[in-house]
Amino acid sequence: MAYFFAGVLALLFGLMLAGPAAVRAAEKPLIFGVFPKLTARQTVTAYLPLAKSMEKQLGRPVAIYSARDFETFVERTARGEYDIVLTAPHLAWLARQDAGYAPLVKYAEPTRGLLVVARASAYRRPEEMRGRTIATADAIAVTVLAAEAELAARGIERQIDYQTRDAGTHYNAVMQVLNGRADAAMLGLHPYLLLPSEVRARLRILAETGPLSSLMYLTHPRLPARDAEAVRRGILAFAGTAEGTRFLQQGGYGSFIAADGSELPALQPYALEARELLRARR
Length: 282
What we know:
This is ABC transport system periplasmic component. By secondary structure, the protein is α/β, with parallel strands linked by helices. It is 46% helix and 18% strand.
């Protein structure tokens, strides 16, 4: 039984990273795209109960997908491959501009960008990052962009005073610090709170940004209004369960609140910066 379960997980992770087309050819569920701030296994563990709650309201399957990196996730979102998407606020601006996604709900508690170091390190001030290497989930993450702006305000410029190294996820960025491959890491407050307690115990926060709008759930315009409303009901129903309460507490999300997109224009500068960074990679 253990081998069967492991095989199913391996297949699921492979499909998550391969893209939605493989599942669409089979059962045609709604595709729920989750921003790759966690590993594939962590994403499934965290969001499967939420997907099940959506299924109950929709009366049809919901398949969880992510991507191997932020760039791939943004490209798939722009192509409209996800029926439901959970993404960063600045990338929500791109999702609306590029594919017409409509904001649905978001987490009530804002996030922040953090600069963390190993607890045992000698670093005590952000200025000590000059000449150092900082691991990041990805350069386009809004918390990374904000953390870089915080350092720039202190006269410490990216790729001039310090080097960055993309680690793929917030968790991997932290592990690079703990494994001695980077001097510090930039990550978001919510991913930091989701780290295992034994990992957080080995870290120390050196600096943090001001509050930033949190992750947002959006639906593709091809979804009928009744399905978008069913997704919303499923999310809110999940919040009322014991699993949902734990999920919101562990992530420091507070609760789910309605999102009408009114805050997105303020995130346009971060969105355009992310777009330019993505274009430079092609």
